[in-house]
Amino acid sequence: MVKKVIIAVFAIVLIGTSSCTDLDEQVFSSVSADQFYNNETEILMAMGRAYTHLRNQTAHIWGLIGVNTIASDEGIIPYREQNLWWDQGYWIDLHRHNFYSGLWPIIDSWDYCFEGATLCNKLILQISESPVEFSGKGNMIGELKILRAWFFYNAIDLWGDVPMVTDFTDLSLPGKTSRTEVFNFIVQEINDNISGLDDYSTSENYGRLNKAAAYTLLAKLYLNSEEWTGTARWEEAKQACDAVISMNHYILESDYFSNFSPTNENSGENIWVVPFDNVVTTGWGNSFMMMNFSLHSLSTATFGFSGFTWDGLAATEAHYNLYDENDSRINSWLEGPQYSMSGEPLWITAGRQLTYRPYIHNLYEPTDPALLDDGVRVQKWMYEAGNLSWPRGMSNDWSIFRYADILLMKAEALMRANGGMATQAAVDLVNMVRERAFGNSDSNYSMASLSLEELLKERSRELAFEGHRRNDQIRFGTWSNTWKFKDAGDSHLKLYPIPFTALNANPNLSQNPGYN
């Protein structure tokens, strides 16, 4: 109920945005500040606009899931029989690392990041200029600055040097700001404003940034500092993780899958989430549609929901093979012959049962395409029985940051500070996560068996399809490797090309090196 109330408030903001054009179409300088917000409640409602923007591409294959997962060695959308999932070759090119400035998932991700930052700029200005005064006003502005920092974090992760505008009244066309300068700006913004955030999520602030989320973002920045700025900051990464751990608030849930259930607002592990609800958040770009993207339409009979699903997104065979059969996380994937809820076989055609298999026949071969049931399908986010037909999606909230990641990041920081070798403290942290997966200590790592290579595998098993894989592969040095359907790549592919739409709109931007 709490989640639905919060989402409903944000939904009202969206409805107001779509039906009232004053905020979006009038030039700010021609409108006095007191026409915008008259009290604290209106300002809080306005902040909701920035948070509703998170839903647009966070858990969407045309946005961050596409560029962070389908382009990695974890996820794949092959061209399937019956001409399914051609989509002008976007998913094929993304997985092959055939990146170009007109690849729409890259374009959509760019728009998502910079529209989000611009929206934060607008709200920061409007709230700052509003004559309404109350005790938490400065903290709200600080919260928006950290949310803006998160959008810039994603931008420098994907594109390196990026335009950075923090003044909504600045109408000039910006050139690129160096990745290091934006990195330092993000760190400073977090450190300057973190004290005004609540410590962690409660029923009053669910879905909003908190101190734990801000420290997690700092940890992410510091872990990538050597790759992004040339300066290693492992100790700072460890300290940021310790700031979350020392709160003694977050836990590893005993049931891994409770973090992804339709009622995962009750999770003690999720640090920062994007709330979704199958009644309130509906429609393209506003709903969570993992079931639509992944499942064959016959699988609706397995889970008891209505509507049509699109039979696309699967795990790569290599990813599925990372799991031990005793690892409970292997149940993140649907594998084998499929049946209805009542136990009846599901038939693609007469004599051909729907059977999800790890093996994927081809990525793109029109005369010999992948089969409709090639590739294991994601069920990590548990599917809710009932009426989920389009445009209704899922009620599972999308976790941006999770406590298990904090433990794994601290372990990585300790190992990298130790020359890449395990310490006992690092082993203990990884084994906390691993024991939850196996239910006992029989499969625990030792100092001899835990290497950075193994840690990368463990991160993939634990965080699969949560949007971390591209970033991890680059940091661990495997992004340019060969994997099935993808050749070895040049180092310039660690950054995506600047979209042609941005280049055409802003002559002060230049294309990233290595791209035409």
List keywords for this structure.
two-stranded antiparallel sheet; Serine Threonine Protein Phosphatase 5, Tetratricopeptide repeat; mainly alpha; two-stranded antiparallel ribbon; 19 helices; globular; 516 residues; single chain
What does this structure look like?
The chain has 516 residues and is mainly alpha-helical. The protein has a single domain (2-279, 398-505), classed as Serine Threonine Protein Phosphatase 5, Tetratricopeptide repeat. 42% of the residues lie in helices and 5% in strands. It is built from 19 helices and 10 strands. The chain has helices spanning 2-19, 22-25, 40-57, 64-70, 90-96, 104-129, 137-159, 179-193, 211-223, 225-229, 234-245, 290-294, 300-303, 317-320, 403-417, 424-438, 452-463, 469-476, 500-505; strands spanning 75-76, 270-274, 314-315, 333-334, 336-337, 347-349, 352-353, 355-356, 377-378, 398-402. Strands 1-3 form a two-stranded antiparallel sheet. The longest helix is centred in the N-terminal third of the chain and has 26 residues, at 104-129. The chain is globular. It starts with a helix and ends in an 11-residue tail after the last helix. The model is unreliable at 11-34 (pLDDT under 50).
